[in-house]
Each structure stands twice: as C-alpha cells, then as structure tokens.
Amino acid sequence: MSTQEVETVSTSADKAKLAAAVLLVVGALVAYYALSKQGVYAQWGALLVLLAAAVGAFLTAEQGKALVAYGRESVREMRKVVWPTRKEATQMTGYVFAFVVVMALFLWLTDKTLEWVFYDLILGWKR
Question: Where does the record place it (predicted)?
Fold first, then answer.
C-alpha cells in the first residue's frame, strides 16, 4: 500500500479570493435587506448578482477548482457502478423484509420465554 503525501499550498491570492467570496456573500445579504424599500426585483437582483460573483470568486481559487475536480471524479465513478436490475432489487428487498420478520418473531419468542422463566417459574408471580 503506497502512501502519498498531499501538500496543500495556499497562496495569498487564493486566500484573497476566498475572503472576497465571503465578503460578497455577506454583501449579498446586506444588500438584500438594505434594498427592501427599493422593491422585490432590486432585492433579488442584488442578491443573485452578488452570490454569483461570490461563486465565481470561489471557483477561481484553488479550493474551488479542487471542489469541481472532486465533483467530476464523483460523476465518473458513479458511471462505473453496476446498478441492480429491478428483479434483483425486488428480490433483495423481499429477503430483507423476510429477515426482519424472522428476527422480530425470534426476539418476541425469546422475550416471552424469558418472561415466563423469570416471572412464573423463578419468582412465582402469577398474572
């Protein structure tokens, strides 16, 4: 098993981009509430424009690029998955339900047996 060291280098430009993204999100919220007297379109317009700018700033940073790469790799891996057929899924669901019923009966029987042993035989309590 090989171990790879992952070194994350965060430049000051990336930190500035992330700070700008955070400030843009805060600015979007402030603008949304500050423009309440201007109307709904001004509120939502400012909110959406500033949030889009924040997303753009985040995606240009190294962390944003890594997030996009992770998403692409996840989609690529999902395409490799062999999904069960409808028949297989139905059969497995049936097996699970049957197992649950058998376990429920077993636990109920065990509980009633222990109740009978402790209360009726050992303690002599009659209900």
Answer: Membrane
In this structure, the answer to whether residues 5 and 61 fall within a common structural domain is yes
For the chain (127 residues), the mean pLDDT of every run of 10, in chain order, is 60 91 96 93 95 95 94 95 95 98 98 90 74
Whether 58 and 21 have beta carbons less than 8 Å apart is answered as yes
The number of folded domains in the chain is 2
What is the span of the domain harbouring residue 123? 84-127
CA pair distance 86, 56, nearest whole angstrom: 41
- Measured CA to CA in angstroms, residue 7 lies from 1, 11, 57 at distances of 19, 13, 23
Query: What span, in angstroms and rounded, lies between the C-alpha atoms of 118 and 112?
Result: 10
Find all residues with CB under 8 Å of 62, minimum gap 6, and list them. Answer: 9, 10, 11, 14
Amino acid making up residue 36: S
CA 12 to CA 92: how far, in whole Å?
53
Q: 56 and 115: one domain? A: no
73 and 105: one domain?
no
Joined together, the tokens standing for residue 71 give: 């998403």
